[in-house]
Amino acid sequence: MSTTVIILAAGKGTRMRSQLPKVLxxxxxxxxxxxxxxxxxxxxxxxxxxxxxxxxDRVQAAFSDQKITWVEQAExxxxxxxxxxxxxxxxxxxxxxxxxxxVPCISQTTLQNLLATTQDKGIGLVTxxxxxxxxxxxxxxxxxxxxxxxxxxxxxxxxxxxxEINTGIYAVSNAKxxxxxxxxxxxxxxxxxxxxxIVAMALADGMTVASVEPEQAFEVEGxxxxxxxxxxxxQYQADxxxxxxxxxxxxxxxxxxxxxxxxxxGQDVRIDINVIIEGNCEFGDDVExxxxxxxxxxxxxxxxxxxxYSIFDNAVIGENTQIGPFARLRPGAKLAAEVxxxxxxxxxxxxxxxxxxxxxxTYLGDAEVGAGSNIGAGTITCNYDGANKFKTIxxxxxxxxxxxxxxxxxxxGNGATVGxxxxxxxxxxxxxxxxxxxxxxxxxxxxxxxxxxx
Length: 454
Ligand code: UD1
Ligand code: CA
Known about the structure:
The chain is built from seven helices and 37 strands. By secondary structure, it is of the alpha/beta class. The chain folds into two domains: 3-220, Spore Coat Polysaccharide Biosynthesis Protein SpsA, Chain A, CATH 3.90.550.10; 226-434, UDP N-Acetylglucosamine Acyltransferase, domain 1 (3 Solenoid), CATH 2.160.10. The strands form five sheets. It has a 23-stranded parallel beta sheet that branches. The model has no long low-confidence stretch (mean pLDDT 97). Bound molecules: ligand 1 and calcium ion (CA). It catalyses: alpha-D-glucosamine 1-phosphate + acetyl-CoA = N-acetyl-alpha-D-glucosamine 1-phosphate + CoA + H(+); N-acetyl-alpha-D-glucosamine 1-phosphate + UTP + H(+) = UDP-N-acetyl-alpha-D-glucosamine + diphosphate.
């Protein structure tokens, strides 16, 4: 049976007080709607239909790389109307999961459970029991069977005592959606076309309505304002941290952990507080990340220790390296095993060979450094002439004295030495010494200037 995912995303999101459409607000660095689309893809939906209204161009542009059928709901006349506008593109058979673009954390497991219990019943809901159900549609049951969903505004005092709520997530047969939706009316307290009225239609057709609870309560939480967004962010992060800890990661304080993307881990990885991990990262066994690091799209091999406040972006780091504190690896930084990169060292589009060290205040850009070389404090590869970029190539076992400028294109041979303070503009041959600085001037018994007396 084919599965369609219908995502409601036409709401304005007024309470966000933002220029950005609500479903583009980020949770864990990804738009709310992106989370729902990812989950739809995980359950291998055959097609994804998204209903847009406000800020449609921006919403569509944000997902232009995805195969999505976009349907406009120009006027928001209610959830039933929203699904109704998909009918021209909705398959005639199969089943649809109806989700909300602002309920980002719904899990694959909950949706699979919903599909499994709905099966040939033709309609199923995700419901949840809350201590305070105010505002939600209530699930009315008789002898355990679902009889209706009553919106809070339409509910009697007695119905308002019901704690079981409609989460707004449904599985419904497409044939039935085609049959029922054109028959919806807006004769209710809000003058809206309620999707929830399909429950009564199902009962009238002699069907029973299936239901499941979400695996975790936060999965069905919606986002209407920034307070809810921040609350959900922490719940989502706590859940990710828990999963990583279950895989053997030592997260020192899960309440100060942020993963905005994916992280693959080996064993005994340790992550100190306030670390932000973005994009797709991978940490090998025994990797340690110090406090305050920001690490994006980076692979770190086993045994590497990263000291606090280091920033990596699109870097590849070998085994048993030592990095930081305050190190910066920019795109294209490739460190071999046992490299040391110390404080205030910036590496961009450069490879550093086995065991080489740049421990203090250095810029290595567009450079190739061999194995066993020492890059002295304050070394700069001058890779840019104001118009073009050039390479600096440093061999194995080279020694670059402190505060040297290497003006690219330039090559420093294996075993070569550059004297401290040199500005090197010509290649330095293997095993030779290059020093470029004026001879030291000495004036003995030098009289320092004295303060002029007034
Ligand atoms: C709806 C349910 C309610 C349930 C609640 C869960 C109905 C009538 N009620 O309430 O039983 O407890 O969700 O949160 O369905 N949307 C559109 N177009 C519209 C109206 C809404 O795309 O014309 C979208 C919204 O952007 C949102 C979703 O549908 O993503 C739900 O709309 P919302 O107004 O939040 O739902 P409620 O009416 O509060
Ligand atoms: Ca509403």
